[in-house]
């Protein structure tokens, strides 16, 4: 049976699921391209920039980070510039580094919520198609009256179950891709936090943490 025949047998829900599957593939490919272009796996520059900061000052560190597409590099640049500027207080540095880090994370997370929605909605749409298909099958069975043919019911059932199968086929890869991509974002977030703290420690602008402020300061460098 061809895809066209399956779509016709499954009803209009199959068309919706097909559109969601195309959108999911497009999101996955776009995010993989974005992550690959940003070089998320290449973080050796962090140690190089920190070494340049210790040995050659903030100018050498910024030079080492120049042209790096990695989001962590943007956070490090912000932390170095703010840390080296005496006009920036500890709170000002926290706010600016958090702002830059949050913007980078939002960029990495763009469309991931849409991918998660597709993964969660596809099985429900498949179930809806199955329910409506079963209703149609039993209506046909009722119309047949005393001339009941088992093929009417069995044919209607397998046609109805097509949507559930297709919904799961869309949902499982989409969910797997979402968790993979989300994991990569979490790794970047952790690297951002670590790099920012190490840079600010060099400039002596890491805040003194009290028990009362611990959670707030965690968020400040985690904004990130």
Tag the structure with descriptive keywords.
224 residues
Structure notes:
α2 packs parallel to α7 (150-202) and α6 (112-144) packs antiparallel against α7. The protein has helices at residues 3-10, 12-38, 44-65, 71-84, 90-109, 112-144, 150-202, 214-222. Helix content is 83%, strand content 0%. It has eight helices and no strands. It has one domain (12-222).
The biggest beta sheet, please? Answer: none
Rg is 27 Å
Q: Can you give the mean pLDDT? A: 87
Enumerate the spans where pLDDT stays under 50 for 5 or more consecutive residues.
209-217
- Our estimate of the beta-strand percent is under 5%
What gross morphology would you assign? rod-shaped
| Distance linking N and C termini | 50 Å
How many structural domains? 1
Helix percentage: over 70%
DSSP helical segment count: 8
Number of strands: 0
Decide which structural class fits the backbone.
mainly alpha
Order of helices and strands: HHHHHHHH
Task: Give a quick precis of the structure.
This protein has helices at residues 3-10, 12-38, 44-65, 71-84, 90-109, 112-144, 150-202, 214-222. The chain is mainly α. The longest helix has 53 residues, at 150-202.
